[in-house]
Amino acid sequence: MSTKLEAKLSFRLASREDFDAVRRITLDAYLAAGHVDEAHPYLRILADVERRAESAQVWLADYDGGPTGTVMLTGAGEPYTEVAREKELEFRMLAVDPAAQGNGVGRAMVEWILDRARALDGIDAVVLTSASYMVPAHRLYESLGFERMPERDWSFDGTERNLWVFRHAL
């Protein structure tokens, strides 16, 4: 992480007072990137920060004094976990406010997730799922040492395995 960015970026568990910011950042990022459209049913899941926060850790990244990014952390056997196995930390719904994209915030957030995982007892890897079309995200993950795990790829409906799993051993 660059020294300039590091000095301006901080992380905290989102509180109820932060949920609107988490919701705004997540929805804006997914819509702006074209991952979903206004009618997509996944928007309801992305918007339901309250429910996520009941059973997973929802984190907020503040950059230069304001909410800029968000991510959810979960582990094996937890309600929002999709692919984490024992001793793996999974991150989901990583989002950076479109107004702050291009400043290295997303990279810094993933580096922070890796550092956080290293500090947790019993965690030996970080995993995530990324849609097959999210090529820029794949380049970021691979540049940070994540490896594709095609044998763990999956889909929501059991057809084409278009949800790719990436893993970073710690």
UniProtKB/TrEMBL annotation:
Keywords: Transferase. GO terms for molecular function: N-acetyltransferase activity. InterPro entries: Acyl_CoA_acyltransferase (IPR016181), GNAT_dom (IPR000182), NAT_camello-type (IPR050769). The keyword Transferase applies. The keyword Transferase applies. Residues 9-170 form the N-acetyltransferase domain. PANTHER family: GNAT FAMILY N-ACETYLTRANSFERASE (PTHR13947), LD18367P (PTHR13947:SF37). This is GNAT superfamily N-acetyltransferase. It comes from Arthrobacter pigmenti.
